[in-house]
Amino acid sequence: MARLKQGTVKTRDRLLKAAIEVFSTEGFVGATTREIARVAGVNEVTLFRYFPSKEQLLGAVAQHITALKAEALAHQEEWTQDLRRDLLHYATLHDNMLEEYEALIRMFIGEAQRHPQEALQVLQQSFLPLREQLIAYLRNCIERGSVRPDVDLPLAVDRFTGMLLAGMVRRHVVPIVRGYSRAQYVEGCVDLFVRGVSTTAINPSCTATPSTS
Asked: Across 8-22, 61-75, 190-204, which has the greatest mean pLDDT?
């Protein structure tokens, strides 16, 4: 039984890796389940046994590439409650994900207008929970007094992650010497974001108490 489960996991992992490879080069529209199965070294019937449709396979890929971020956000009680430190940790995970899967992400951006509605819904269902969890963290910071209550949190989160996405695209689309490192860019995004939302100018912490003045 243990060997059977191990074999099942290995086959599923091979299919996910193959899907990432094929989606990265062909896009969602151009990718076929037959080609994904071929790259994975299985037949198409086996692929459909694990993923009944290409949309479900896409959803599994999206969950796979966001797994580290999802794990970090799922255990916010283990965060330091220091706003800058926590957001730097999150931003580093986010940037690592973007870097590891940059070909896949750029392909989906490039063909966004061609995605079937079902594929768009799958991507939204996979990524929106992460967005909502980060919003929840910042809402908790508002309650603790380290983030301003007038901040539009959904807009702020989208701007924050948008800066990180822009950095990845810039690195790969226009790979010129810029005078700063990837880590410096990520840290700069965090600092800019924290300055914009925090109630304190230096070392904003979720444990800070609101000013009584």
From this structure: 8-22
| Structure-block tokens of residue 140 | 């908790």
The pLDDT score that the predictor gives to residue 35 is 97
Whether residue 3 has pLDDT greater than 60 = no
Question: What does the domain layout of the chain look like in residue ranges?
Answer: 2-54, 66-197
**What CATH homologous superfamily does 2-54 map to?**
Homeodomain-like (1.10.10.60)
Specify the pLDDT at position 166: 92
d(CA 120, CA 131): 16
**What is the reported pTM?**
0.78
